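SUBJECT: protein chain
CONTENTS: sequence, C-alpha cells:
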Amino acid sequence: MTAALAERFGLDGRTALVTGARGGIGRAAAVALAEAGANLVLWGHRDNLDEAASAVAACGRKARTVVADLADPLAVRTAADEVLADGPVDILVNNAGIIRRGPALAVDDAAWRSVLQVNLDAVFLLCRLFGGPMCARGYGKIVNVASMLSFQGGLNVVSYTASKHAVVGLTKALATEWAAGGVNVNAVAPGYVATANTAALRADVHREAEIRGRIPAGRWADPSDVAGAIVFLASPAANYVHGHVLAVDGGWLAR
C-alpha cells in the first residue's frame, strides 16, 4: 500500500467510540477500526467487554471500556462526559440496538418504548453529545447502523422497523446541518448478518433457507463484511460523503 493510500484510508491518531462493542458488528467494527490505526472506546451495557478490548489491544491500539445502559439517558450523559474528559472522540459508531419480535397487535407499550429508546433516542443523544464537540472542532465522523428494515416493513418487528426507518431520517437530517462544518454523518444498512440478533431466524430451518435463497450473494453476511464499510465511512476517503446510507446486503435490495 502506498503512503498516499494509507493516509486516505488510515485512522492513525484518531479515537473511535463504538456502542454495542461486545460482539457481532460492533466488535468487528472495533477491531477493523483498530487495524486502520484508531484507538477505541468500547461501550456496552454490561461489564463484559474484556475480550473485545483484548482484540483491539492485539492490533497495537489502546482500548478503554465504558459501561452504561443506553435506555438510561442520565447514565449515557454521565458516561459521555467521562469519555470526553479524557480527550476528543473523532469517530462515533452507533451500533447498539435491540429487537422485540411479535405481531403488532400484541406489542405492549413498554416493549415498544424500550426499542425506540435504545435504537433511536440514544442514537440521537449520542450524536448530540459527541457531535457537538466535533462541530466545534470542525471535524468528525458519525456512522449510524441502520438496517434492511430501514427500507422495508419486515414481519413481526414493528418497533425495530420504525426505529431503523427513523435512524435513516436522523442521519440525513444531521448530515444536512453538520456537513458544512466538516462533520460527516452517514449510515450503513446491513443485510442479514450472522449475529445474536438473528439467531432465532437462523435456527428456523425453513425461514433461514427462504432468506438465504433471496440473497444474490447466496450467504448471510459475516460481521466483518459490515465492518469494512464502517471503516470506509470513518476514513478521510469518505470526506465528501454526507447523509448516505450504504447498504451492505449481498445484493438484497438490488433483487
Summary: The chain has one domain: 3-248. The CA atoms of residues 72 and 122 lie 8 Å apart. The domain at 3-248 is CATH 3.40.50.720 (Rossmann fold).
